[in-house]
Amino acid sequence: MNFTGNEELLARVINEQKGRYIVETTTGPRSALVKGKMHYEAFSRMDYPAVGDWVILRDVATTDEVIIDEILPRYSKITRKVAGLKTDVQIVATNVTKVFIVVSAEEPLNARKLERYLAAVWDNGASPFIVFSKADLAENSEQIKQDAELIAFGVPVFLWSAETMDGKEEILEHIDTEDTIVLIGSSGVGKSTLINALLEADIQKTGAVRAEDKRGRHTTTHRELLLLPTGGVIIDTPGMRELQLWAEDDQSLSGSFNDISTLFEQCRFADCSHKTEPGCAVLSALENGTLENSRWQSYLKLQRELAYAERKQNARLASEEKKRWKKVTQKRKKDKY
Ligand SMILES: Nc1nc2c(ncn2[C@@H]2O[C@H](COP(=O)(O)OP(=O)(O)OP(=O)(O)O)[C@@H](O)[C@H]2O)c(=O)[nH]1
Ligand SMILES: [Zn+2]
């Protein structure tokens, strides 16, 4: 990326609260809002900035809140499904390169859970790492590490203890300057403790951020994207904390429509479209009333929405990337930066 002479237009989102953002610029944190057009064009929450996003700003010279003009294409996004009237997908963090799955070495290894975590990380486009915390409390931490390595095929596995600080250097060696990392894992495994150790400071102190809002008021809020003294950043958002639920019990689409996926397995043809085929288990379940039509319709609707969102996302990423960069450079010329 070359933003020579134009650095103030490029920023990174470090906090989001109810549609208000704090972005880190080369001249410090600023309050930010999205441009009106973004609201019209937004298809879902995916189309709004999220913590970790690189964005292009407008109106940086004014004292008011800056406007987020563009979200640069995302390298990856960590998402979670939000239960509500309809299933929505919330972005927990973007542009994450590495995910540290933190598991307590004190507990017996839960292979299935670890596999689900690994799959979830890969699904989200980041590289997983496994950290066994509380190594000081484990009976045989080396054994746990070896067992995990058998499941994780080449994924680095670390033993870490906050008591002795053993393992910290090894973990830091795996974090590069351009990395954006997040930590996931069950409550109480020691994620905050590890983050604090990596930061060598209290997050409460380093995390506070003061930014100016529209009326010149200063707002103090939490920085959710934290700079590591050794390079790289850690994202720690409230959503990160709830992510474990999604990895721990299977709330995926097929999970929540278990009855329907069971029917699919009973169709005569493996590639059944469930429209006209003979021996279709869905059609016969609809006919004999064991599957309610409304439930089938909501399944189809969700399928269409997900497919549409995905198509939209993919097509846009491909074509918009070029367009965005072009726009940015044109703007730069126009503004005589
Ligand atoms: N003995 C020992 N205790 C640890 C270690 N790491 C964390 N703890 C303790 O475990 C407890 C939970 O640690 P946290 O860092 O708050 O855990 P967390 O994963 O951030 O928990 P949530 O915020 O609920 O998600 C605290 O009392 C820590 O002091 C460790 O390596 N060894
Ligand atoms: Zn069928």
Task: Explain what the structure shows.
This protein has 337 residues and is of the alpha/beta class. The protein folds into two domains: 92 residues, Nucleic acid-binding proteins (OB fold (Dihydrolipoamide Acetyltransferase, E2P), Beta Barrel), CATH 2.40.50; 156 residues, P-loop containing nucleotide triphosphate hydrolases (Rossmann fold, 3-Layer(aba) Sandwich), CATH 3.40.50.300. Helix content is 37%, strand content 25%. The protein is built from eleven helices and 15 strands. Strands 10-9-8-11-15-14 form a six-stranded mixed β-sheet, with helices on both faces. Strands 1-2-3-5-4 form a five-stranded mixed barrel. A two-stranded antiparallel sheet has the order 6-7. A hairpin with a 2-residue loop joins strand 2 and strand 3. It is flat. The two termini are 16 Å apart. The N terminus is likely disordered. Bound molecules: guanosine-5'-triphosphate and zinc ion (ZN). The site of zinc ion has 7 residues, from helix 10. The site of guanosine-5'-triphosphate (GTP) has 16 residues, from helix 5. Its EC number is 3.6.1.-. One of its GO terms (cellular component) is cytoplasm. It is found in: Cytoplasm.
Supply the key terms.
single chain, 337 residues, alpha/beta, OB fold (Dihydrolipoamide Acetyltransferase, E2P), Rossmann fold, six-stranded mixed beta sheet, five-stranded mixed barrel, 11 helices, 15 strands, 37% helix, 25% strand, flat, disordered N terminus, binds guanosine-5'-triphosphate, binds zinc ion, Ribosome_biogen_GTPase_RsgA, GTP binding, EC 3.6.1.-, metal-binding, RNA-binding
